Amino acid sequence: MTTQQLTDQIKKKKSFLCIGLDVDLNKIPKHLLDTEDPIFEFNKAIIDATHHLCVAYKPNTAFYEAYGIKGWKALEKTIQYLNQNHPDIFTIADAKRGDIGNTSTMYAKAFFEDLAFDSVTIAPYMGKDSVEPFLAFKNKHTILLALTSNTGAFDFQTKSIDGKELYKQVLETSKTYQNSENLMYVVGATKAEYFSDIRKIIPNSFLLVPGVGAQGGNLQDVCKYGMSDNVGLLINSSRGIIYASNKEDFAQAAANNAKALQQQMEEILNM
Ligand SMILES: O=C(O)c1cc(=O)[nH]c(=O)n1[C@@H]1O[C@H](COP(=O)(O)O)[C@@H](O)[C@H]1O
To answer: The complex's ipTM?
Structure first.
């Protein structure tokens, strides 16, 4: 998917919501545990109930890897279901990968070719040759961790090196990488006060913004300082949407929470 197609979808749906599919078998409704593939059945019900309210889904691979081969199969079925039924929806494999070049190439093949995701999250720590293998894929997107939502972000990302914070160096240096037009960045919703500075460096890049809902980030603040001319934001909520209820009504409850966020987004887009 191109970023133009993503922007078109945002304008059509009046939403820049990304729903995180972080499936924990301890949190899903008990009746689903009797089915053959509870993770997929949960995801399918959530997707069926919410696809008109969001523009992206982001399964975090940890939640699938934790269940071994069954988990990976459920991830595969989920992305196939999305690609077959909702090809207009942007898909993010939240895998936070990155390694020496030949290994990154294999990670890129796994997520872009085998699983056919539109994008994957990548840690920038190993630098240029660990990121460029992902960028080499046309119309696929590499979402680089810039300033994360957790408190540990202050351990390294905001520290100055040669007079400039590390997260700014990540943004500036990554712009020089080959095929850098395929880059997007992660910036946590809990770091709203940093968005103005970030937009000075990357005015138009798409930002994946996790941390609203369960982590306490504020949607209005993020939009005020982080929105670009082409919207340029994908706001993720995982637990705040998918675990709205653990009863039979879980999918409808998730849709209600997604709708509440989408309506706030619509108001912001209309301003
Ligand atoms: O890359 C991410 O998506 C990510 C980056 C970050 O800085 N903070 C962050 O919470 N995430 C992910 O975003 C999701 C947030 O989930 P909730 O806090 O339940 O909405 C989880 O899958 C996290 O792994």
So the answer is: 0.99
